[in-house]
Amino acid sequence: SGSPSTSVSRRRTRMRLLLQFKGKTTEVHADSADTVIAAAHDALALPSDEWRLKIVAKGKQLQPGASLPALAEGAKLMVMASSITAVERGLTSRSDPTVRGFAAEDEAASRRAADTAGGADEVSVWCTSQDAEHKFCRFEPCTWQSFGTRPSSTTPHAFEARKLLLRLATDPAVVGIMRERRYRVGTLAEMDPIDDRLAEKMEGGGKRLLGYNTNHGMSIHVRLRTMDLRGFEAYPSLVDTLLHELAHNEVGPHNDLFWHLFAQLKADYLRHHARLAQSGALFSGASPLQLAGVAEQVSDVRAAVLGTVARDRMAPLPPAQEALLDGYFSLTERRGGNAVGGAERQGDSGEGASHASARALAAERAEARRLQQQQQQQQQQ
User: Fold this and answer.
1) CB atoms < 10 A from the CB of 363, how many?
2) First to last CA, the chain
3) Cys-Cys crosslink for 156: which of 64, 160, 202, 371, Cβ 3.0 to 4.6 Å?
């Protein structure tokens, strides 16, 4: 008589539970985790030798051999099932070598960041580095697949284009201009020649675009390759294009103020290299005039500046602009002596103070313009 009463007692302790699986609800009765799991296999037609179940009650998975947590009558349990065969196949299969994991993705991203950033460990033929603050922050050569990657291609590879961008950025005269004028450019990039051809069709007139400045120094693109794509443009021409685009950091339209600023940058560039040459400085065993290709230009800085600006604007500078350029020379150039375009040393005369004042005023204006542009961008965002 004891056995029936025990069976009745067990039936009374079992509670009604609702299993939720694939959007359907199934009712079972159980009094322990083992009976819940067994009932789930039977009620859901999932044989225990083929399927592995995960049953969650109150946010915790039911473990075999454990007692049921404190559940109310009719409590809902969530059921998840996975095929034992599929699990074993996944554990024993090899990973796909063409699919990168998270660690590989992070490593690739780090390499890309190192490639585009103007790293201090990179050295150009100048063997110099940029200013810590006033510099080109990133370099982006044109990496389109048709440039330098096909066996029959004769155009220089993107690696060579990046070296040329680095050479422009670390040119001692360019570094000096960036520091003195407080210029900071986000990206110095190679202009895609395909884009250049499209620009030529849209603009007409047969004049090719040599570069452009986006948002007053957010990025500067320079056309590096020749028209037939077989090589790079001459280094002095690339420098002239870069100086032209740097002038757009301060002045957008091609007005008289822009051409005067461009003339100043060109004069500063030539005189900087002239001073380096006179000091006996060598870069990679060569004279700076030789590396920059400006030996002939520094022999007459004024004529070289006027010629460069005239070619760029396709018209000679008017007399008023020439007078402004001469005034700039009078402030920044040492009259007489053997130095071509040499700067006044401190204490030589009042011209040294004038030189410093002119530089400080230009730097203050550039900094004020940069802050104003940042505020406008923040307001637009």
Assistant:
1) 16
2) 84
3) 160
